[in-house]
Amino acid sequence: IAFNGGIGTGKSLAASIITRHFSWKRNVQKLSWEDDIQISSLSKCGFNLIIIDNMNFNSTSIEYAKAIEQELLFKAKGEGYRVILILIFKGSHEELIEEEDTNGVQVILKNFVVVDFQAITRDGFEKCIELHQKLYNIQMTPQEVKDLKEIDFKTSGCKLISKRLNLIK
Questions:
Q1: Taking all residues of the chain, what is their mean pLDDT, rounded to a whole number?
Q2: How many CA atoms within 13 Å lie on the side-chain side of 55?
């Protein structure tokens, strides 16, 4: 599966929800492209879930994605491992469907189900505030709500909401 979308559109949140409800929790590996990516040993008991976050549409990360996909396909077919791979790309829909795909994004993603996350709107951002307020069970003052609504949601999405509510809580 390939999650695609801008900052704060819910890609990492969706991956964390999948992780939270995954039946074989010991078989989950969450990695970030910024770190030194090392997939540890896989389990033959149940499914393995590998999530690689913060991927870019550049040649280095696309080449790595091709290599990891091939390695996991080999292990799945040849050695009987069952693996679910989720790549989380930080990028726009336009980058994904560029006609001149110099990095081979479309080639690697032809084997993936691509889930395109859309940019958040003002209405969606305000709903995000309401949802997080309920999740954290917090009564905010009108000034606290006003301060949250002043966050630049176009660059941060909903990510800053949970951080700010943790401070209030």
A1: 83
A2: 34
